[in-house]
Structures are given as C-alpha cells and as structure tokens.
C-alpha cells in the first residue's frame, strides 16, 4: 500500500506540474489547450458511441478509431514520466519491491491516468455482452460476433497503443502516416480487415529498425536558427500536428453525420480553430527570436527585417499542415476563405499584442459572420 501511495503521489505531482506548464508556456497552442481540456474528456465517450455501433460505415469507423487511438496515445505519452515514475527511477529501483508488485502498481497507475481510454471501451463491451446475453445466445454466433467485434477490437487496440506509448518508440508510420495515406480508401475495407491491418502495422513498425533521417544542408542566417530550434524540440511540432489531425477527424466525422446546413456552419467553426492553431506557430518562432536577440543584433539585419523573416518562416512551416487540411477535403471554398482570414488576423494579433492576440481573430470572425 505504501508503494502505491508513493507512485500515486509522483503521478499527481507530475500531472500538476504538466498542467501548470501548459498554462504558463509561451506556445500559441497553449492558449487553446486549457480551454479544450474539458472537451478532451468528452471526445472519447462520443467516439465510443460511434465505434460500438456495428452498423457504422467503415469509413466513419476508421476515422473515428484513428482519432481515438491518436488521442489515447498522446494522452499517455504526455503523462508517461508520471506513470513510470521516471524522475524518481533510481530511488524507485532501490525500493524492496518485487517485479510483480511493481508491474501491478504500474498497471493501476496507468488505469488511474487513462481510465477513460481503457475502462471506457472495456466497460462498454461488458455492458453490451452481459446486458444482452439472452439475445446474443439466442441468435447465430456470427451475428453476435458481428455486434461485439467492433468494441472488442477497440478495447484491444487501445491497450496495444497504451503499451506502445509507455515502453516503445513513437509509431509515426502506423499511427499517422499510414492512416493519412489510406484515408480515402478506408471505405473499401471491411471493419475486421481494417482492424487486423492496423494491428499488424503497429506491431511490425516496432520490430523493424527505426528510420533515421539526416539533414545534410540547412539554409544560413535566421532560417537555420529557427529550423535548428524546431528540430531540437520536436514535441511542440508533434502536439500541433496531432491536434490538427484530431480537429480534422472530428470535423470530417461530424460534417458527414449532420444535415448540409449544420455541416456548413460546423465547417466555419472548425476553419476558425484551425486558422488559430496554424497561425500560433508564430509565437514559437518569435520566442526563439527573443531567446537569441543579442546574437541577432550583431547581424546586418534590422529588427523589422528579423520579424518579417520570423513571419515568413512560420508561414512556410504551415505549408505541410495546410496540405494535410487539403488532403482531408473537408472544407469548401468559403471555409478556406474564413481560414485564411483568421490565419492572417491571428498573426497580426500576435505581432501587435501577444497577450491578447485572440481578440483579433475573434473580431475578424464576428465581422465575417456579419458580412456572410
């Protein structure tokens, strides 16, 4: 019991420090993240409602499953040090605790930290199986398997993704690149084939040696500084990419499930959020510029020119992200118009008043709403 209290206290301290760092950090994504935390707890529950329905179209099932696994993996990775007691690993290893007890306590802390993503699908499976046991026993086995397979598969995949998040390298190909490339063809596969293929991909990627990319050339001047800073801290970039993917998945699933009028209005909302998310990269870039300002003052580049280069770099950085938005083919022309306006207004707000920069895109959105 004392060891459980020790591990739980480490996790709670890590969680508190993590939440405080999110609120205090100077990354633009951070301004939206605290407001989105309550929604993060609702998204898995909404996703499970779609995933548990055996009649959900394969395309919608695949997109929802992708978003659920992305959110599950990201949620555990962000709390990995607290769950495994990494900051106190040497003291933890010196304690007279058996390997079995350490494993059980780690499992309990993981359940405590990610209960929605583990207990949610498992409990839903048990409710569906035990609550309708008479109906399931009275009908053919294949029909019962058809009804229970989706939520059972989600439960197993969630456990697999959580194990990868705690003990393996990031499944970049199987969790991001492969689903992104195969997204237009998801409707071709059946649900069992989709789930089986995803499971094999997740396992195979961990068996194969990691691919290491070597950048042999970097531009000179301030661009090299910004690129090097992004390479040195990839977590912010990954958080921005995963947030964008989850947003686009939510937009795709929601806009496919409602009437055209509601779908169009939802598109405006999602384009507003995406515009702020992408433009907030400028805050990171200006932060790097401020960190090395004394060095930059020695270069034959004026401060306005430095700021212009920072704006240009943060815009170029967003081109692959904008290509991802285009690949989803969720937004119409009017939505892209709103996204571009919000993107521009957010950058202007960051340059004029970084503390209250959200006022600028909000006022722009109100103006567009009045005009449109």
Structural summary, described in words:
The chain is an all-alpha fold. The chain contains 20 helices and no strands. Residues 24-30 have low confidence and may be disordered.
Q: Ends: how far apart?
A: 62 Å
Summarize the main sheet. Answer: none
Number of helices: 20
Oligomer: single chain
Annotation, overall tally of beta strands: 0
Helical amount among residues, as a percent range? over 70%
Please write the string of helix (H) and strand (E) elements: HHHHHHHHHHHHHHHHHHHH
Helix vs. strand class: mainly alpha
Q: Per the principal axes of the C-alpha atoms, what is the gross shape?
A: globular
Mean pLDDT: 86
Give the uncertain stretches in residue-range form. 24-30
Report the sheet-strand fraction: under 5%
Query: What is the radius of gyration?
Result: 23 Å
Characteristics:
81% helix; 372 residues; mainly alpha
Q: In summary, what is this structure?
A:
This protein is mainly α and 372 residues long. It has helices at 2-24, 28-51, 58-78, 80-84, 89-94, 99-113, 115-131, 133-138, 141-167, 172-182, 191-207, 222-232, 234-257, 260-279, 281-291, 293-296, 303-317, 319-328, 333-352, 359-371.
């Amino acid at each position: 019991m004392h060891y459980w209290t020790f591990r739980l206290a480490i996790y709670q301290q890590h969680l508190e420090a993590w939440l405080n760092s999110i609120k205090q950090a100077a990354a633009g994504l951070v301004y939206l993240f605290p407001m989105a935390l309550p929604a993060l707890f609702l998204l898995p529950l909404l996703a499970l409602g779609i995933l548990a329905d055996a009649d959900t179209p394969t395309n919608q099932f695949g997109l929802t499953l992708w978003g659920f696994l992305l959110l599950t993996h990201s949620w555990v990775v962000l709390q990995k040090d607290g769950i495994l007691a990494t900051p106190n690993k040497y003291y933890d290893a010196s304690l007279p605790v058996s390997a079995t007890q350490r494993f059980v306590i780690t499992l309990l802390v993981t359940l405590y930290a990610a209960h929605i993503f583990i207990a949610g699908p498992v409990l839903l499976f048990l409710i569906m199986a035990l609550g309708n046991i008479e109906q399931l026993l009275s009908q053919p086995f294949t029909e019962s398997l058809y009804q229970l397979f989706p939520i059972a598969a989600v439960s197993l995949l969630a456990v697999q993704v959580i194990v990868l998040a705690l003990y393996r390298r990031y499944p970049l190909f199987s969790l991001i690149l492969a689903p992104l490339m195969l997204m237009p063809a998801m409707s071709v596969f059946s649900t069992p084939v989709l789930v089986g293929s995803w499971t094999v991909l997740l396992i195979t990627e961990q068996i194969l040696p990691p691919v290491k990319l070597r950048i042999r050339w970097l531009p000179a001047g301030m661009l090299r500084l910004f690129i090097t800073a992004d390479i040195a801290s990839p977590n912010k970039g990954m958080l921005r990419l995963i947030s964008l993917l989850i947003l686009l998945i939510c937009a795709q699933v929601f806009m496919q499930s409602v009437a055209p009028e509601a779908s169009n209005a939802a598109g405006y909302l999602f384009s507003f959020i995406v515009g702020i998310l992408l433009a907030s990269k400028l805050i990171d870039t200006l932060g790097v510029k401020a960190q090395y300002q004394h060095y930059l003052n020695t270069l034959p580049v004026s401060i306005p020119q430095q700021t212009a280069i920072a704006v240009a770099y943060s815009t170029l950085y967003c081109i692959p992200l904008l290509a991802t938005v285009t690949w989803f083919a969720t937004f119409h022309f009017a939505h892209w118009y709103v996204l571009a306006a919000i993107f521009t207004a957010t950058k202007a707000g960051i340059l004029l008043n970084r503390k209250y920069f959200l006022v600028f895109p909000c006022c722009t959105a109100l103006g567009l709403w009045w005009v449109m």
